[in-house]
Design a protein that fits this description.
- The protein has about 55 residues and is an all-alpha fold.
- Helix content is about 45%, strand content about 0%.
- It has 3 helices and no strands.
- It is elongated and about 40 Å long.
Length: about 55
Amino acid sequence: MLDEEMKSGDMFINANEYIKAELEKYPQSKFLLDHIRPNASEGVIMYSRAALPQK
């Protein structure tokens, strides 16, 4: 957590590396409707996995 986040009480989850790795393994069309919006099935799951801790 960054110092600024600790002071404000906000939390930031940097999911960029996970998302980048997934988009390098699979075609973007598997996850995205366009350049930013996830599709309703695989895209939402991938974004959720990127942001939520895995056990």
